[in-house]
Write a structure and sequence with these properties.
The complex is a heterotrimer of chains A (354), B (283) and C (294).
Chain A lengths: L3 E9 L5 E10 L4 E5 L6 H9 L6 E6 L2 E2 L10 E4 L11 H11 L4 H14 L15 H13 L5 E5 L7 H18 L2 E6 L2 H7 L2 E6 L2 E6 L1 H6 L4 H6 L6 E9 L4 E5 L2 E4 L9 E6 L4 E3 L5 E10 L4 E7 L2 E7 L10 E6 L4 E5 L5 E2 L1
Parallel strand pairs in A: 3-8, 3-9, 6-7, 7-8
Antiparallel strand pairs in A: 1-2, 1-4, 4-5, 9-10, 11-12, 11-14, 12-13, 14-20, 15-19, 16-17, 16-19, 17-18, 20-21
Helix pairs in contact in A: 2-3, 2-4
Chain B lengths: L1 H29 L22 H31 L5 H8 L1 H4 L2 H12 L5 H9 L15 H27 L2 H9 L4 H29 L3 H6 L11 H10 L4 H31 L3
Chain C lengths: L1 H15 L3 H27 L23 H9 L2 H32 L5 H13 L2 H14 L6 H26 L3 H8 L4 H30 L2 H6 L8 H10 L5 H39 L1
Helix pairs in contact in C: 2-12, 3-12, 4-7, 4-9, 4-11, 5-7, 7-9, 7-12, 8-9, 9-12, 11-12
Classes of the chains: A alpha+beta (354), B mainly alpha (283), C mainly alpha (294).
Chain lengths: 354, 283, 294
Amino acid sequence: MAELRLREVTRIFRNGVRAVDGVSLDIADGRFAVLVGPSGCGKSTTLRMVAGLEPVNAGEVLIGGRRVNDDPPQRRDVAFVFQNYALYPHMTVAANLGFGLRMRRVPRSEIRQRVQETSRILGLEHLLDRYPAQLSGGERQRVALGRATVRDPAVFLLDEPLSNLDAQLRSEMRVELVKIQRRLEATFVFVTHDQVEAMTLADVLAVMRAGVLQQVGPPEEIYARPANMFVAAFIGSPKMNLISGAIADGGDGPVFSAGSIRFPIPSVGGLPDTIVVGLRPEHMRVDPEGEIDLRVEVVESLGSQKFVYGSADGVDLGAAIDPRIHPREGERLRLSIADGALHLFDAASGARLP
Amino acid sequence: MQIAGLVLVTPAIVLLSMVVAGPFVYVVWQSFFEKDGKGATLANYDWFMGPDFWPTLSHGLVIGGLSTLIEVVVAVPLALLLNERIPARGLLRGLVTLPWAVPTIAVATAFLWLADPFYGLFDQIGLETGVLKQPISVLGDPHYAIWAVTVATAWKGLPLVFIVILSSLQALQAQYLEAAKVDGAWRLAQFRYVVLPHLGSAIALSAVLSGIYNFALFDIAYLLTGGGPAGLTTTWPLVLYNQEFAAFDSGRASAVGVAIFLAGVLALVVVLGLDALRRRRYT
Amino acid sequence: MAAAETHATQAARWLRFPSVRTIVLTAVAFAAVFVIIFPFLWIVLSSFRDPGHFLTLHLRDAVPHNFSIGTYRLALGRTDLLRWIGNSLIVALSTTGLALAVAAPAAFALVRLRFRARGFASLYLVVAYAVPSITLAVPLFVVLVKLHLNDTFIGLIIVHASFTIPFSTWVLSDFYRSLPADLEEAGYVDGASLVRVLRHIVLPLSIPGLLAAGAYAFILSWNDFLFALVIMNSNEHFTAPVGIHAYFTGQNATQEVWASLMAASTLVTLPSVILFGFFQRYMVSGFLAGAVKG
């Protein structure tokens, strides 16, 4: 159990690509941190740098306050759960679990006891004598997790461990993971490209893009106050609507207009003439007096939720509406915006305003 | 499609039947006929009980087995070495496989020349450095001849083993080594617990193929020592050759030929069977 | 901004420097490979010694200072090396042609066509490959004598070609497997018969595979000693390895004999090594296909 600190960590590949660019992150002891971002954003590379599997070209990695840049993985007391599990194929589950302890010269009796206990926690007791090839995907994943758990490391690093599981198994394992993390009171760093996973698992969420950290904070905060357009669009499902438009002075305050949509926006000092307004689909509702006149194009019904996609005079929008309403394609729907649901972004930089 | 397939494959089958299958049947059949005998007997196979049997077999086993051992022991570290990211490694890999392309006559020349008691590099260096007090004739000396033949055989056979092991090594995914590193395994442990088990099948396969080939190899023993000194490097292939072309006893020669084939089949079945058993649990 | 610059230069410096480990490994690798190819290097080097002073007792004279090609002149002048090499060439080229002509269609059929005898044919190849050459030396000799084909090129060519068929077929099978079937299928859809598809589409595309398999067949035929020894018994028909062997065993080991032997051995190795050098890349994967199959 230890805290993890990344200070301006950078990784430049041989071909000059900056996979990770000046990432700084503090993860307190016992927190479940998630690194999320699209493929190729550098999140896995960052994780591997913490493990010592990638060299740190610039910056510092500190585990438990100690600088580990120059330490090879063997010395770092971290555990890594691979996306493809990387279970040793020629060793039994028990041997796989005990391997790390064996390498660290833990006495045999203690290894046996710890392996027993870990396998009990993860429900692997009946599998101890099997080989990885004989296990299902879910079982293998639990062994991979067990291999990490049994070592009781300072930091747990998990590289998209749920990506290879089917949807049902994935949700079950998500819950298991959190339980284990809480039980062990361990520091978890979890990498995923799935923002749903990210939001549900994280105590601390870090959004990355093209090697650069976009925003760090509790999931609710990132959801409620995204720092830029990228984060706003990435987090939240369905995606936030981003509408470009102009601001004009409308008597009582600034008014935003795009296409036929017109609504007032909160008066904040120094607004440029054109901005991008962010509006989450779930923050609109059907209202005969609403500001938005939407021509419905596609309706998606998920049972408990309903989404409509369409355009309001050239502006494409998606909205989450009451599932009891049944709009038809081609129909016109009026929508209003909930209070405080607007996010304002600078059109050029993408940064949040103010 | 049926006809087309048959037609395209037929020439190969025909040629192989003429040159391999037919002769094989013939050699088995011939092994039951004595040189000047009448009917079919097992007389030729009493060679197995004879005085010649065990010495020649042991020569073959030493040369075949030891050369294969040398090949594996050299090939594994070499493959590890040439799997690293070092400059010109493509060139180096190509050079390692050079012995395969060298005709056995040239291999013989090279080793004869190196081992010549007076003019050969081996003896000259030995004398110069004081390791040798007087010239030794490696190939003529009863104590050393078989080892020299073994080394030359290993030299020729190294490329095959090297290539099979190198490709197995290349197929080993990095993540297993990474997992081992994170688990605390240093280089030696990584090798012992991850690399070596992975290479197990490749080593078994290449070793048995090379072993059988080296056991049944005629060229090098014949060219280097002719079977001498005093028959100390005579292997079964040489016995066969002598029986046919010196003693003109086709029957006996055939019996030896069949024995060589059976030895090969036995080795193949045993080694591959063991490897299959080993792997059954975790593949 | 300044902080970013420092990081960039820091990182760049980090990347350029080869580690000590790499240097040591490279040195060891070069040394190991040198030791391995040394026997061959040694005869090549020795072939450039002055034939007049070929046999020396002193180490320092072992490495030639002045390179001379006298040994080659001796080898070519005193022996029938040129004829033997010519014979080897005839046999090897014919073997390659025959082997490819037989193996290529077979490989194609095994990979692309589904026919009932496919499994049998595949197995046949594997089993044929498993029979040791020495076991077949006697019956082949006897049969060829009976057919009056011993001491002829044709006899040796047929034997060589047959022995290279399994491996050549595997090399070519591997090659065909990597060739997308789309082009052939487009041909069929366009109305071409199998024969036309083979001739106009498959054949031109086969060239890299044919070159690799052909190089392999050539080398095997060129290098063969056992069958050439058994089948050829007149000096006019000797292939290079047999001729050289006959020459060397028929004489006392004088200076001239050693000298010519060095040159002859180097010459006989050259075609194989050169071919191998060119096609090595392709041959390695075929090698594996063969080894794994076996």
